[in-house]
Amino acid sequence: MINNKKNSITSNGIKLISFYQKFLSSSVSKFLEIFGLVRNNSCVFYPTCSEYTKEAIKKYGILKGSFLGLARILRCHPWQKNHIDPLK
Questions:
Q1: Where are the domains of the chain?
Q2: How confident is the model at residue 64 (pLDDT cuts 50, 70, 90)?
Q3: DSSP H or E run through 84
Q4: Closest by Cα among 41, 42, 45, 39 to 72
Q5: How buried is 69 (Cβ within 10 angstroms: 0-12 exposed, 13-18 middle, 19+ buried)?
């Protein structure tokens, strides 16, 4: 019972990120660029933060995966150099 609930929560987290990637990501990027909050419309990390978070949730579960995704987002800033940062 508990494992089913845990899998359901993880699955819903992944679905939420997939929805963001498909429908909201480009709109958010354009909004941030218009207001000068980002220099260009490209991510400095590979894989993107949303893909990284999705992988982290699949591997570690919803709590630790979300924490790792948030930590990755907080490392992003305009002076960041492009680099590969895979999930460990």
A1: 2-84
A2: very high
A3: strand 83-84
A4: 45
A5: buried
Instruction: For residue 41, give the nearest of 60, 53, 58, 27 by alpha carbon.
Output: 27
| Angle, helices 49-60/62-74, rounded to nearest 10 degrees | 150
**Radius of gyration from C-alpha coordinates of the chain:** 14
**Long-range Cβ contacts of 67-74 (<8 Å, 24+ apart):** 72/45, 73/49
Which residue shows structure tokens 């995704």? Answer: 69
H helix runs in 22-78, sequence order: 25-34, 49-60, 62-74
pTM of the full structure: 0.70
